[in-house]
Every structure is written in C-alpha cells, then in structure tokens.
Design brief:
The complex is a heterodimer.
Chain A (H helix, E strand, L loop, with lengths): L2 H22 L7 H12 L3 H9 L4 H31 L3 H6 L6
Helix pairs in contact in A: 2-4, 3-4
Chain B lengths: L1 H21 L3 H23 L8 H19 L6 H27 L5 H29 L12 H21 L4 H19 L7 H22 L3 H25 L3 H6 L22 H9 L3 E6 L1 H5 L3 H13 L3 E6 L9 H8 L7 E3 H4 L8 E5 L8 H4 L18 E6 L19 E5 L2 H14 L1
Parallel strand pairs in B: 1-2, 1-4, 2-3, 4-5, 5-6
Helix pairs in contact in B: 1-2, 1-9, 4-5, 4-8, 5-6, 5-7, 5-8, 6-7, 8-9, 11-17, 13-17
The chains are: A mainly alpha, B alpha/beta.
C-alpha cells in the first residue's frame, strides 16, 4: 500500500466514521441488541478478503488460513442476519399484536 | 470485470448504510435488513469473479460449513443466551480478520511497505485480542468461568509488560517488516492480552465489554480493508466499530463510569461497602394484598432486571400484564439501559414474550411518570432502582442514573431472599415505608399473582 492508496482509504474511513456516528446514534435503545447482531453480520463482509485468500492458491498455509477465515466469516454473515431477523420479528406494535394475538414465532 | 466488482462493492456499501439507517425504528428495521442482505450477496458474488481466484473448492467448503454452523447458532439459541452467542460471533469475526492478516503476511512478508505492514499489524493485533477476549467473555456469560473478576498478584505488572512488549514489536515491525519472528510473537502476545483484558471484568460489567469487543471486531475488519485496499471492508468495519463504540459509551453513561474504570476497576477497588443509609425493617407483604392493589390500580409499572431473565419469568409477566389490562389498568415496562447482560437485551426478551414495543419505556421517558404510578413492581432488579445512587454521594454507585420507583405510591420488590444481591450494595429502597417485599421465586410469585388478580 503506497501513500497514494493510503490517503484515499483514510478519507473513506473518516467519512464512514462520521456517517456511522450520525446514523447509529439515532438507533433507539429498544433495538440495541439487533443493532449489535446486524453490524456483526455486516462486518462479516471481511468474507471478501477471506475468499481471495482461500481461492488465490499462493501457498498451502495461505489457502488453509483463508479457508478457516471463510468459514468464520460465513458463520457471522449467515448467523448474524438470521438471528437479527428472528429478533426483529418479535417487535410488534400494539395493533399488530391485536390482529394476531397468539401467533407463535 | 474490475468495474463489475468495484460497482458491486459500492452498491453493497450503500445498502449497508441504508440497512442500518432503517434500524432507527422497529417498523422499518426488517426492510433495512433485507437491503443489507442483498448488499452482502452482491459483494460476495462480485468477489467470486476476482481474477486472483483460481480454485473454488475451499471457498465452497467454507461457505457450506460456515453457513451450517451459523444457521445452527441462530435458529435454536434461546434469547436468554443471546449475550454469549453474540460474544462468540465477535470471536469468529475477529478471528477471520486476524487470519486474513496472517495469510497476507505469510504470503507477502518479503515485500511489504511501511503503510501496509502497519495495517496488517493493527488488523492482527485487534483481531487476535478480540478473538480470545470474546471467548473468555462468552465463557463467563455461559457460566463456564466464574462471573466474578479474576485477579492475581502482579497482574498489573504482567499486563503492563505485555502491552509494552507488544507495542514495541509493533513499532519494530513498521521499520523491519520482513522480521517474521517479531510478527508471530506479536500475534501470540495479542492472543494472550485478550485473555488478560477480560478475565478481571465482572459479569455485571459485561454490557460494556460486549460493546467494546464489538467495536474492536469492527475495527479489525476495517484494518483488513486498509491492508488489502478494499473500500467496502473499510466502510462496513468502521460502521461496526463505531456502533460498538457508541454502545459502550451509552452503557458507561448508564452506569456513570468511565471505560477505564470498567476495564481496570477490578484492581485495587474498595471492596468494602461505603456505609449507606439502609436502616430499619424490611416490610414483607402478603401476595393477595399485592394482587388487590394491582387489580385496582390506575397504572402499574414493571421494572425487570436480569433476575427476571434467569427466572425465565418474562412470559408470566406478560400474562399478568394482560389480565391487568383487561381490568383497565395501564401497564408500562421501565427498562434501564444496563438491564440484562448486553445492550438492549431486556427489550428483546420482553418482545419475545409478546409485549408490544410501545409498552417498553426508556429511563428518560418513564422517570417523570413514577409519581403517577400506583404500583411499581421490581422483578430481579436491584442497583438500577437504588435511590442511594441519586441521594447519597458516598455510595459506590453514586451518580448512576436510576429508575426512580421510590417516587411511586407503592413499590413491590420480588426477591428470592433477604440478601444484598449481586453487587453487594445495600439498597435503601427495600427499607422505605412505601416498599413491600414479596419473597420467593419470581416466576412462582408472578404465576400466583396472575391467578389472584383474576380472582380480585
């Protein structure tokens, strides 16, 4: 990574941090647990790095480390979104509750 | 092809931000998650087209195994076990970031520039310490390790040496990127440091630690983005890192403590109770009287704490809430930010028990409402309703924002026994004239109350 690459990357980091601050401070405490699992799933995007490491076949060690990384990141992507959806289904307004009073999740 | 991949990443980034933006309200939250899922799919498909990839068998094997484990971990885990499950996923995310960094170093260590080695080292440092730290946190939350702070003699000196050596190696690597031993030793020390960081932290402080580990895992992913020059990774990792950071600040404020105090509080903290104004007799009440009071009240507020979750009482609480509402009683739930073992945990538990979210009130919303409340029912909560935090500057929890249940007309505290509870701090609320104690298992008492309210 050269300085020419590093500085734009730093811009992206700074802007993402600022945007993150603006967006995430507006999430109510009601949804803080789903927020945590959702950001967990989203940061499973490190999968894209793992995929390249696992598939590039530079050397055996790299491939195996990449394979484990793909597995771990996939656990987070699949598991993170899955459990977030499961949680969000619980949150119902009073009206929804009256429509289907005894619906089991 | 390069452009296809780059565009898939750009769209993924936008969809992630949109998805998180939708989490500001429960009505839009699920739509947002679908958008984020679509973004993830696009990014993965885009990556599979990467020119460096020559074989797919390991990638597909990883997808299948990881997908299966992820599904297993999410479909059947009970909501009470969410904290340890989330801690585990922080560990997985951090490990993935760390391994990509190690693979990158192993493959290219001969020719790494100063910027790149800095990024890789940060990634491996944060990733490794978060991996072991999260595993310890999960073990504590699961009860496999004792929840109390674990300390030993010379721990401070040991940790300080560990930090100095690790940072020293980091600095050395920036100028000597090709020194393999320094890199691997730094990695090993980071794994050890993760253990040392979480061991001395008690269970009650877990919400902060969870949020902090969340933040580290995200920053590790962002550092990966720097290391492999991947913008979507920088964006997603930064969002994750900031979300964790904001949550840890929220949690610290809710306990009126600083992050340093949480992390290093176990060392040399005053063990003795600082006096307190808790004197007099606790007044025990009879269940039928409580039922009558509640049945004829205008407003009842439930204050659930972690004790409610451990007693698995949330469903009975909802039944009680239903039978009260049938009689025309207004029922509200007051949720303290640190109720539960992770941020927002109590809300999920109550939502699962079919309590509509409009009945869940935050601290700021409900405190002004307590004087209009006839009966406040405290279930398995203690410190978050301790009036000493507000009135007694000498209290160990002085300044912590509390739910002011003592301002309601009557307070009923459901408690297992007469003990001091988890933190060992005396609670003067229990001795106030308008407080009644209802001893016994919370779930049983509540079930009896449901019955008695129907009879009343």
């Amino acid at each position: 990574m050269s300085p020419e690459e590093f500085i734009p990357a730093l811009y992206i980091f700074a802007l993402a941090a600022f945007l993150g601050y603006l967006v995430l401070t507006r999430v109510p405490p009601l949804l803080h647990t789903p927020l945590m699992s959702a950001t967990n799933a989203i940061s499973g995007i490190s999968l894209v790095g793992s995929i390249v490491a696992a598939g590039a076949q530079h050397n055996t060690v790299g491939t195996w480390l990449g394979f484990i990384a793909v597995t771990c990141a996939t656990i987070n992507v699949v598991g993170g979104f899955w459990i977030t959806e499961r949680m969000l289904k619980f949150f119902k307004s009073k009206e929804e509750m009256k429509q289907k009073p005894e619906e089991k999740n | 092809m390069e452009y296809t991949i780059a565009f898939s990443y750009l769209i993924a980034s936008l969809l992630f931000i949109y998805g998180l933006r939708c989490l500001t309200h429960p009505e839009t939250a699920r739509r947002g998650m679908h958008a984020a899922e679509l973004g993830m799919l696009l990014a993965i498909v885009g990556t599979l087209l990467h020119h460096e990839i020559v074989s797919y068998e390991y990638i597909i094997a990883g997808f299948i195994i990881g997908g299966a484990i992820g599904a297993l971990m999410s479909h059947w885990v009970p909501m009470t076990a969410l904290p340890q499950r989330t801690a585990l996923s922080h560990a997985f995310g951090a490990l993935a970031a760390s391994l990509v960094g190690i693979a990158e170093y192993y493959t290219h260590h001969g020719h790494l520039g100063g910027f790149k080695i800095t990024a890789i080292s940060l990634e491996v440092l944060l990733g490794s310490l978060t991996t072991t730290g999260s595993l310890i946190a999960a073990a504590k939350l699961q009860g496999m390790l004792p929840g109390a702070p674990m300390t030993f003699k010379g721990q401070n000196l040991f940790n300080l040496t560990l930090i100095v050596v690790t940072v020293g190696l980091f600095g050395y690597l920036i100028f000597n990127p090709a020194t393999g031993w320094a890199f691997y030793l730094m990695m090993a020390l980071a794994f050890v440091f993760g253990v040392m960081l979480v061991l001395p932290i008690g269970s009650a402080d877990m919400p902060v630690v969870m949020a902090l580990l969340n933040s580290y895992a995200g920053l590790a992913a962002a550092a990966t983005g720097f290391a492999i020059s991947n913008n979507v990774l920088i964006i997603a990792g930064t969002l994750d890192g900031f979300s964790g950071f904001i949550l840890s600040i929220v949690m610290c404020k809710a306990m009126n403590r600083s992050i340093t105090n949480v992390l290093f509080g176990a060392f040399g903290s005053p063990a003795a109770d600082a006096g307190g104004s808790a004197e007099g007799e606790m007044r025990e009440v009879i269940l039928d009287d409580v039922a009558t009071q509640m049945a004829y009240a205008r407003q009842v507020v439930f204050v659930p704490g972690y004790g409610m979750a451990t007693a698995q009482a949330q469903h009975v609480v909802r039944e009680l809430c239903d039978s009260l509402e049938e009689r025309g009683v207004t029922v509200k739930f007051a949720i303290h930010p640190v109720a539960g073992r992770m941020p927002g945990h109590m809300n999920v538990l109550l939502a699962e028990a079919n309590v509509p979210y409009s009945q869940l009130y935050e601290l700021e919303q409900i405190n002004s409402d307590f004087p209009n409340t006839d009966v406040s029912v405290v279930i398995g909560a203690n410190d978050v309703v301790n009036p000493d935090a507000r009135d007694n500057p000498g209290s160990p929890i002085a300044g912590m924002p509390i739910l002011e249940v003592d301002r309601s007309k009557t307070v009923i505290v459901l408690k297992r026994g007469k003990g001091k509870g988890f933190s060992g701090i005396e609670n003067p609320l229990f001795f106030k004239p308008n407080t009644g104690m209802l001893y016994g298992d919370a779930k049983e008492s509540l079930a009896k109350l449901v019955h008695a309210v129907k009879e009343a």
